[in-house]
Design a protein that fits this description.
There is one protein chain. The protein is of the alpha+beta class and 94 residues long. A four-stranded antiparallel sheet has the order 2-3-1-4, with helices on one face. A hairpin with a 4-residue loop joins strand 2 and strand 3. The chain is globular.
Length: 94
């Protein structure tokens, strides 16, 4: 089993601060995120210089990979772990 094929069982949402100067930077970030298969959803707030990503990944790995490809500093502001208990509650009417 290779390292790249490992998918964590837990889902995370992380908030990162990245210096976004222009629309070109925003497009570059979006292109990099869309090429990461483990990321399910994302939101880029250009004026607040924040990027939100959710999916099944190791949070530090995504931040490191994004920083390397952008050649910029990526700061993780918040990490939230998402569990599947909400979905199970919705499926069982009481």
């Amino acid at each position: 089993m290779s390292i790249h094929s490992y998918i964590p069982a837990k889902s995370f949402c992380i908030v990162m601060r990245i210096n976004i100067d222009c629309n070109g930077c925003c497009r570059k970030i979006r292109r990099i995120i869309l090429n990461m298969k483990e990321i399910e959803t994302h939101l880029i707030e250009k004026h607040q210089c924040r990027v939100y990503v959710c999916g099944r990944f190791a949070p530090s790995d995504v931040a490191i990979k994004l920083g390397r490809k952008l050649k910029r500093r990526v700061e993780i502001l918040e990490i939230q772990e998402i569990d599947g208990s909400r979905e199970q509650v919705d499926q069982n009417p009481s």
